Every structure is written in C-alpha cells, then in structure tokens.
C-alpha cells in the first residue's frame, strides 16, 4: 500500500475513533485565539443624521450579529442545506467523511463532507485546496474547536464570517446588500436564498446568476420541508414569492458621495488603515430628505443648462464588426467604459436616421428613439453634420427615459455645480452636493473650488457701510464712473453695470436689489477698500483671498461655496459667526462613542461678530433682493415672502451664484466650468444658480412656517426705511457722489 493510501486510511481511522484523538495528534495545530478573540473586518460606514447609509469603505462588507439576534428561520435554512446534524455531531460528521474518504481511495477526494465546524476551521486557518494533508488538519482543528467553543459560538462565527458574494461577509451584511433589509426582516424565501450562497457565492448569487440562485433556494426550501422546519403551506408560499433583489447589490443612498468621501478622508487621517476594518460608524449632520432634494436640484439645473447649450456629439465612436458575436463583445466592452450616471445610460447606436435611432444598452436591451426623443440632437442626425457631431452606427451616446418611459438623447454635462446647506444657527450641514457626478469627478466644488463670488460679495460691502453710518436710504449716484490711475494704482478703470443701464440717484436698498455695480464701487470708495477688507474676517471670509482695491465690490476675490454659506449665516442668525461642520458623532463596533461634536449654542453673545442692528438691516436689504430685485423669482416660485439672498455673476459670466436663507437654513448654489470660461452671454447667477436654490428650498421649507425677524433694540423706521437710532437725524442729508443740484432735487422729492 502506498504512503498516500496509508494516510487516507489513518484519516478514516481518526474520524472513527473520535474527537479525543486530536490532543495526541502529531500535527502542530494553531491557537484558537483568532476565534475566541474574534475581530471581524468591518468597514467604515457613514450615515445621515436620520440613519440613512450614504457610504461604506472597506474590502469586506460585513456586519456582526450575535447568535441570539440571528432569526431562527435563517439558522434553520443554513443548517438544512449545509449541516443538518450540526447540533448532534462532534465537529465532524463521520458518515459524510467516510463517504468522502472512500471516494478518495477510489480516485480522489471529490465528495464534500465539511461540516460547519470544519468550514470555520478552513476559513480561519486553512486554504481551500483539495489536498489530503489540508483535510487531515481540518478534521483535527474541527475537533479542537468543538472542544473549546460551544455550538452557538461556532455557528455565530460561521454566520458572521462566511463569504456570500458581492463583497458581503456574513448573513447580516448579505441581507442588507441583496435585499436592503436588516436580517430580522427577511422572509422565508429570502432567508433560503441566502442560505444557498455559501456553496458558490460568486457564481450563484442572485445578482450574477439569478436563475442558479433561484434553483439553489428551491433546494434549501425542500430540505427545510423534509426536516419539518416549515409546513407545506409555508414551503409553497416561499416558492411562489417574487423576491426583489437590489440591482446594484447595495443599500447605500448614492446621493451623498462627496460628503461620504469627506468623512472617509477625515477618519483615515486619524485611524489610518484601521479605518477600513475597525467597524467605525460615522453619523453626519446631513438630513436625508434635504440631501436627496439637493442632489436632484443640482442635476436638474445642470441638465437644463446643458440642454440650452446644445448637443456636443457622441462620447465615442466604434466600428461595428459584421460578425454578430464579435459585435456583441465589442459593444459590451465599450459600454463598460461608460458607466451609467444615475438616469443617464450609455448606449451604442445600431442604426440612425433623422426620424429614428436604434441602440443597445449595457444590459443588452435594444431601444428605439423616435422624433420626440431626437429633437435635442437633431443637427447631429443630418446628412451633412460635422464628423465630431454626427450620430451614426457605432456612436456611443447617452439616453434617458422620461416619466412616460419614452427614450430621448441626452449627454453628460461638462459644467460644474455645487450646493451646500447649513443650519445657520449651529453650522451643521444639512445637505452637500459637490458636483454633478462624483464617479466622473471626485473634485468637491463645495470645499475645494475657490471661485470669484461676483455680486454675491456686495452684501458684505453694504454691511461695512452700515457700520460706517450709511443707511438703506442713503442716495448713491448710479452714473458712469471713471477711476483714475491714482485711485486704482494702475490703469484707469470704468466699472459697468450688467444691464448697461444707469438710474441716477438711487437708494442703497435699490442699488443692492438691482445689483448695480457702479453704485457698489462708489459705496466702496466712500468707505475705502481697506475698511471693507478689514471688515470681512468677522464673516469667516479669508482676507488673503480678497483684493484690497475697488474690484472688491464686484467680487473679484475668491471664496468656496461652504465659506460663503457660513458668511451669509451671520446675516441669517442675527450676527453670530458659525463654524460649518459635517461629523456629528463617531462610534466603534460596540457602539462606544469615540467623538461627538459640541457645536456652539445659537445666539451666544460671546460669538457675536456683527452688531444686531447691522445684521437686521442688512437682512432687510437681502429680502428686498428676493422680493423686487434680481432674485424676485424665488419669492414668486416658492410663494413665500420670508426669503433673503443675493445673486452673483462674476466677470464674463464665468461663475454663477445664489447665496440665501430662510428660517434656520442657509444654502449656497454655484455653477461654472472647472477650466474657467464663460457660461454664456445670457447666463447669470439668476439663471444658473438660483434655480438650484429654489428647487432645494422648496423641499426644505415645505413644512416650515413663514418666519420673519424681529427688529432688535436700537433700530427704527425713518423716512420709510430702517436706520439705527443714533443715525436717524442725518439720514436725509447723507449721499454718495451726488452733485449739489441733484442732492437738492432728491432731498426735495424725498
């Protein structure tokens, strides 16, 4: 007899002798410390404040659930198919091993005989190679495990450790990933489907191969019926149940990837590689309904802008092979390079005429686009269309469905956008969208894009002027202006109004509402650029990013959307600086709190940076903007009169902004190209950014009552407008750059 056959005979003998033999085994068995001190690799998870999962980072998607919390139906389903005698044998089911060894003696170890205990031994300590020496060690380890751990401890380890496909480790994680449910909420049919996965998790899971997964599930259910774990009625009902499997194999809300990535970076900075295995949970300040609304608002407005700019042509062009098999392979490989961007799907054109386009999607489905859905790309379907624009067979295009299921041509926008919303009392971020598609560009415009704010900077200049004694009723001359070389320190400069119209003597209230550039420059000249520049830090603005010259009035410095949101919050909350923050709480796998934010309490005088009277009056100016000025459409579309804010358009319409607030929410929207260039001669903050803000605030304010500020002590109405009491006597005589005759006329008419 060969050495190989002697070894096989020894295995059979040891199995039959029983578990007492493992102590005398010549094998050097490892310690069970990794089991008794089990520390599963659980990923970093990021949640909204209302417990919606928005991010998961780690190679293994895993939860840990104590055996007492695992539903009986899930345990029974697993035992039925994997190890029905688990609670009876001593770690090795000798009947199964005898069959496997005899089969091996006749030609190889081909029959499976592993109990759950043996699988635990293999998963923790061994490889899955079908070698006799490995099997011998596995048997001895199984006996050792059974001697040192209880049955429930072994089953708990297995059900949390086993791989179930789609990077899911353990049944709790699989329940969430495949069905979007906690383990306790699974039906019998769903539990049976999960129980069938350990055999071949990568190839028979319900995402990669739903037919084989269903067949395996039916086998599990039949075994449960045979073992009397379920009744005939339960069995039949489970067979008929239509199981909904999540298409992407996850239950993560994909509307907050920029915020989730901000959290990942912050946690990695502290915990390094443990970030992805320690089971850290981070609870952000985001509100899921607000985040969803912000995400939808950004995408809707970006797509609308993109449609206004016209079709740019297919994303790529391939030559379709004549052979059907080769053509299919090329199409599949090509579309993998152009993944879906939410509702924007990639497709390869099979045929194209001005009235009809046939295309195939990444899932293999063929679609037809009719004239209504081709209107956007009409020029690209003409015979004489330029080569870069033309749609023809082999073109890679983007398509989406309308609410009636009709297909239409679209495209991936190439413009950037952002929205961030804060609780303006505490600084907690309610929503954050850093761009159109995180998976196309991870650049976070909310925190990383330093852009010119344009006229969105003007309220800070006006607030500085109030601090110097000017009032909303102060008259300023909106007339052509030339600043000399001595004043500019360089070339002479003639600031221009966006509408190229001059209104003569107007109040500061009207000047801000209409966003008059020349009036703003005259006002800055009156208070001096140095004074205004020194005034900015109280709003949290970085003075090093702002010029100390007259262009400051037109917003030629740089801000981020997040910084601007914090700055406008000072006007919204009555004069208190806030520090925006995203992370509310961090816990470990056992729920121990590792960190909890302690934001400043609202309206603490120690945090006041702006006189309450100044904040109130500036607020009234910003409310004028939304009621009669450049942002009047906000009040009209939201049907509310408690809105405040300011549009902003930088030089040549490179950046479009709207910064505003209502109630406890301040939100800032921005749009622009990453490589700065004009958005278009007819585009302004009111056309590209304000619609984003309106769409978001429509949801945010839906259940909030109208809220108007209460005048603080020390302000009163004088000659039809708010003034600080100490200034009320001289408001009628103060003006900016009016000639004596004009001052007399205006004074008389006033």
UniProtKB/TrEMBL annotation:
Q: Where does the UniProt annotation locate this protein?
A: Cell inner membrane
Q: Where is the Penicillin-binding protein transpeptidase domain?
A: 418-664
Q: Name one GO molecular function term.
A: penicillin binding
Q: What's an example GO BP annotation here? A: response to antibiotic
Primary location recorded for the protein, binned into one broad class: membrane
Q: What is its EC number?
A: 2.4.99.28, 3.4.16.4
| One Pfam family this sequence matches | Transgly
InterPro entries named among the record's database cross-references:
Beta-lactam/transpept-like, Glyco_trans_51, Glycosyltr_51/Transpeptidase, Lysozyme-like_dom_sf, PBP_transglycosylase, PCB_OB, PCN-bd_Tpept
Keywords from the named record: Antibiotic resistance, Carboxypeptidase, Cell inner membrane, Cell membrane, Cell shape, Cell wall biogenesis/degradation, Glycosyltransferase, Hydrolase, Membrane, Multifunctional enzyme, Peptidoglycan synthesis, Protease, Signal-anchor, Transferase, Transmembrane, Transmembrane helix
Domain Penicillin-binding protein OB-like, by residue range, is 311-415
Q: Which GO terms describe its cellular component?
A: outer membrane-bounded periplasmic space; plasma membrane
Question: Which residue range or ranges hold the Glycosyl transferase family domain?
Answer: 52-224
Q: Which reaction does it catalyse?
A: [GlcNAc-(1->4)-Mur2Ac(oyl-L-Ala-gamma-D-Glu-L-Lys-D-Ala-D-Ala)](n)-di-trans,octa-cis-undecaprenyl diphosphate + beta-D-GlcNAc-(1->4)-Mur2Ac(oyl-L-Ala-gamma-D-Glu-L-Lys-D-Ala-D-Ala)-di-trans,octa-cis-undecaprenyl diphosphate = [GlcNAc-(1->4)-Mur2Ac(oyl-L-Ala-gamma-D-Glu-L-Lys-D-Ala-D-Ala)](n+1)-di-trans,octa-cis-undecaprenyl diphosphate + di-trans,octa-cis-undecaprenyl diphosphate + H(+); Preferential cleavage: (Ac)2-L-Lys-D-Ala-|-D-Ala. Also transpeptidation of peptidyl-alanyl moieties that are N-acyl substituents of D-alanine
**Pathway(s) served:** Glycan biosynthesis; Cell wall biogenesis; peptidoglycan biosynthesis
Give the membrane topology: Single-pass type II membrane protein
For this protein, the record's PANTHER family field holds: BINDING PROTEIN TRANSPEPTIDASE, PUTATIVE-RELATED (PTHR32282), PENICILLIN-BINDING PROTEIN 1A (PTHR32282:SF27)
| Family the UniProt entry places it in | In the N-terminal section; belongs to the glycosyltransferase 51 family.
Q: Any idea what this protein is called?
A: Penicillin-binding protein 1A
What species is given as this protein's source?
Rhodoferax fermentans
